[in-house]
Amino acid sequence: MTEIVTSALSLLVKAAASPAKDAAFRKSWVIATLKRLNLDPKQPPKDFYSLYAYTLVEALHDQPSPVLQVFRDEHVQQSFYRSFSDKNWTRLKREIGESVERNRETGEYGNLPYGMSEVAQDFISKFQDLVSRSRSAYETRLENKLDDMSEMLDQVLKTRSAEEKHRQSENPQWAEASAAQRLTGDVREWFHAVGYTVRREWKVEEVSSVALLVEVPQRRPGKFDLVVALCVEGEVAPYHLESLKGLVEEVGAAEGWGIAHLRVSSAARELASRSNDSLFCYSFDELIDLEADFEPYIQWLEREVQNQHIDTRFVPLACRKEEIDPRTEKSFGTSMYDWREGGLDNYVDAWLADPAKKHLSLLGEFGMGKSWFALHLAGRLAVGWRDAKSRGVARPRIPLVISLRDYAKQTSVSALLSEFFFHKHRINVRNYEVFSVLNRMGRFLLIFDGFDEMASRTDRNTMVANFWELAKIVEPGAKVLLSSRTEYFPEAKEARDLFGARVAAATHAIPSDGPTFEIVELVPFDDDQIRKMLSHLLTPEKLEVVMGHESVRDLMRRPVMSELVIDALPEIEQGAVINLARIYLYAIKRKMDRDVSNERTFTSRADKLFFLCEVAWEMIHTNQLSLNYRDFPDRLRACFGSVVENSKDLDYWEQDMRNQSMLVRNSSGDYGPSHKSLLEFLVAFRFAAELGLLEGDFLHLISGPDESNGERLSWSEYFASRGEGGRLAHLLGFDPEGVEKLASNFGMAEYNPVIFDFLATMIKECDSYQDVLIAHIKSTASALEPFNLGGNCANLLAQAGGSLAGISLHEARLSGFGDTGEAFFDISLEATNLSKADLSEADISHLNKRNANFTGALLRGGSFLDSPISADHVLLDSHGAITVLRSRLPNTHPWVQPMDSAALHWPHGDLHEEPVVVPLTPDPKESWAGGCGIFEWDDGEWGCTDRSGTVIRSSATGEITQSFQVAASFAVTWGDSRALMAVDRSSSGYTWKVVDAATGHLLAVCDEAIAPIAHARVWGYRPSVNGVLLRVSSEEETALFEMTSANSEWVEQARFPVGTAHSIGGFTSIRTMVKEDTVYIEGPRSEILTYPKSEFGDTLDDLAVARCSAFTPDAQRLVMSNDRSVWMLERDAGSWRKAWSRSVSSDVSAFPAMSADGSKAVFAFRTGELSTWSLADGNRMSARSFNPLLRGAQFSRESDLEESDYESIKLSGGLIGG
Questions:
Q1: Closest to 1083 measured CA to CA, from 1071, 1069, 1067
Q2: Where in the chain is the domain with CATH 3.40.50?
Q3: Between these two residues, 12 and 686, which has the higher pLDDT value?
């Protein structure tokens, strides 16, 4: 029974002793009693126990004491909880009926009145009425499940049992041990961690237990107590303690401890309490409590949940999960988890209950509620942990909420955790090893919040290194939830690769035992969630004002915006322009003006903003998102100089800036933003001012609306030049800073989509923003070190919708231009003069460069030659006909029209001729080429597929010869006929199947077999001579299985002692593996060929640097490529030699196709080039380009390009000068 329920019943019992006759007095007594219980008489509470206590007071205030004793009964209360949870009141009514019958015999409640069933029904009705007044039915049912600890703890017990079974399945020796022996293993490990010494271990057969003789250190150094620890199966019972007493006497120990995995009987506890402190009994959790006190942390967590109003204002979140085929990396749709049906809460609960599940990564854009949910989840588990501890039952994992923004202050994750345990929360554990042991034992849920905040610069190497740093503490038994901004990853696949532990830090191999994370992504709020969130904060009238503005509702899709929108409500009501940046503008202005009007501050709004902007830039730039109170004086001196020279003035300014500057303080005295996006707004504000582009309402935040007689100064000049008394001058507007100062600030900023979004909104208040930004770009030509100033200005201009077409940027330095991750923005470079410009660290591949002037420009290192249109698949039939699948890049570029896919066919194999074009209709749900594809059929025919089905075409004419109502991936031979390998998406999942080409009948289903290799990481289907070939690789093993018309199961064809851990080369390196003295390479028919390592000699290095490889049909030639070369190895007299090598300008975009006689190959490159090559000498025979972006562009030989780059430029329609 909780404290509030006990208190309510005590007050009711006292009142029942002298009942009030006057109805008005009874009403006032109810109100007063609710207030004594800290309950609001006007608003029912939201947590379950408080709501139950509220109902007791309202429904039973006029009932006699015997009735109250019935509702005090724990069995009645438990029945109530379960009845409400199940929405079935039969259980409660039955329990009350049985209580009444029992009372007739025992009189335990006293003299019960007639009509207890009516009293119960009235109580139920009152409770349900309060529920409807308190919140929605779903919210209450959800919180009821969480507050109903018996249900939650039942699940904990099931989870513990499932985790133990999983542990046994992973460790056969552990499974063979008895329960007492397994407990002893855990106890020994725990004793070692806390510094206890085990001197002896022996079996105690008569009680099926294991005894340990243990030295337990005393507080005095060098002193210890001798303890016998008896590890028992099942529950500690009195007979165990009798046996333990004899063992203690036998060895002369000071104490005896009876230890069970989960349960201790009440009789055993009673017996121990009478042993004069010589016998004790513990569950394993209670044994841990002796040396690890988590109560202070749990209390902090509960306070944090309350301080942030998560306990009363949390709104359930929805999420989605993209379903990816691990074999092909194709997406087969998205699973949605609606908040009305439990959403993210239910998903995480199921994940926590599944011992075999991966770890979990929660992605979402800024302000979507990641940190909100982390604390909400931790708060739920903390309540469950405390309740389980008080009941003496199995406890849920302790949720450790660890902010990764603090990582920048530490040298390692272990140092971060040490800070978390020993300093931040002062958790009483002996050492770091205690954490490691408890982590391995599954006692923690590690909630790492803010993976994107671990480093100040988000280059790929740092991101990967940070992941593997976190991986060091993700041990077997651990559960980890890791949150991050979605925009931290350039593309979804990069997130999947990283969280799937498939990428390694620079100079390191991929560890074989890295942790893997499944990924779920938060979904923006819908209108009902917005209404629910605001209902906690606004009156019904003001709520309707907000909901009536579509633009405001769109901003509120991010929960973080709620309080900012409320601060900006007056402007919204007046019809002001609304966007994300302006909401921050209005909210900051109102907060600061309110402080002034309340006489809570003496510094000006301008000075506050200046200080906040300077601090925000330092925090973002260094990724240390807090400022300790001890550091305020130095920051103030740096910002305000002589104004704060006097120590008394410094004290005033320090107090004012700390207390009235929108920064919030934690218990350690660190000041930081309530949300990172506030810093990002302030940094954007500062950059706009430094660029000379702060105008309109944004400028008035500094200057005020009536500064027509003011001066124009730069940002730094304005705050440095003060008049008498430190007063700031009247400000007309900001002039730009000089190029060197801009370079050291805006030029040092890494692209951040949130900052640039704010910044683009701000600068568009200035009519001349395009001219100003272009002038800044031009100024980089004379700068000593512009860093990314030119590139950032160009990116900002693109994001604001500007253009560089026809502009002269002669000698401009554009490092960082286009380096915007997943956020692509179009800006035309058509006819732009970029002569002698530095584009070596720019990515302008996706931009229109037609007729631009690149003479003398530095271009090498950038990817300007890559094309948005290229060939994804290449076929070459026995008669020389060439077929390719041409498609655009996935539609991440907003200016590119829906994917332009087509099959192009050259019947005679001459790429100089115009092809037969077969338009294909992509499926927008498919991530890989829109679900379009081509494949080989019979000799003289080929197939193509799209969302409408599959057709077979003549190689001679391109005409349709057959059509099928199924989307096929490739063709197979099935007995005496041809069949199609297709994907069935008729159910919620997907299934690979073999379909008869003539009848459309299902011939076989390929996905129903159990994985034929344990811990498989790579799957792949290929056509075989007689059916379908399945290749499966784990880290240490690879096997080939075949399914044919003669059987319906996978039949093993071959097995090899190599896997992903032995692969060499690039992204297709699973085709080439090396172990000891043998090389394993995928052959021309998907078989695996083996060669002695010695056969390759020096050419083994060529295998290692290859990113793509393909055999000729006779397996005597091996054509390979990477991003700069194509070469061929040839086998001669039992050894391999390099026959030729040619430079190229990019990676291939598809695997090369080989002619049947092995004399010719067709290559497709990311530059858009498609070409045929003679394998005899490595010369191109014919070529064409799909790249539409370089036509008419001018280049010169004095640039830093290689000959292969010039060939690609000419092929794309560019012009090469002298």
A1: 1071
A2: 295-523
A3: 686
